[in-house]
Write a structure and sequence with these properties.
Number of helices: 7
Bound molecules: ribavirin triphosphate, magnesium ion
Distance between the termini: 17 Å
Oligomer: single chain
Amino acid sequence: MAVTRTFSIIKPDATRRNLTGAVTKMLEEAGLRVVASKRIHMSEDQAKKFYEVHAERPFYGELVDFMTSGPVVVQVLEGEDAVKRNRDVMGATNPADAADGTIRKTYAESIEANSVHGSDSDENAATEIAFFFNDDEIVG
Ligand code: RTP
Ligand code: MG
């Protein structure tokens, strides 16, 4: 299995509850390595652009409001089959459907305030990493 990268966000509901370390520990225990990390407060423009694919969905406005409601931690994660590995440890979008032992089952508050984002393909991972990080900020 090839070592690849994915992009992760620890969302405002998790940073508000001081869960940055707890979430990161679960990512690390799942075999992912944090090769870049920074805490930012996303602007409305950034959040709108980042979630552009959801622009027509009914929850888009609320999602942008939520993602700009507090600090987030954006990270680049490296590991074998990183996109799938990360999505497996994140669990289902809705915590009510997430498997035991996943981040969302353990920590998410709701389908929206679900603690983490993870890229859903290698192609989107590359786009999302480039959206938040310069190459010299990633140390593998
Ligand atoms: P993500 O992109 O954040 O990793 O999560 P995902 O693939 O599991 O979910 P996606 O369908 O891409 O939705 C993106 C984020 O929008 C919020 N959401 N709210 N109110 C709702 O029905 C609803 N559905 C989705 C969640 O924060 C979700 O992670
Ligand atoms: Mg998604």
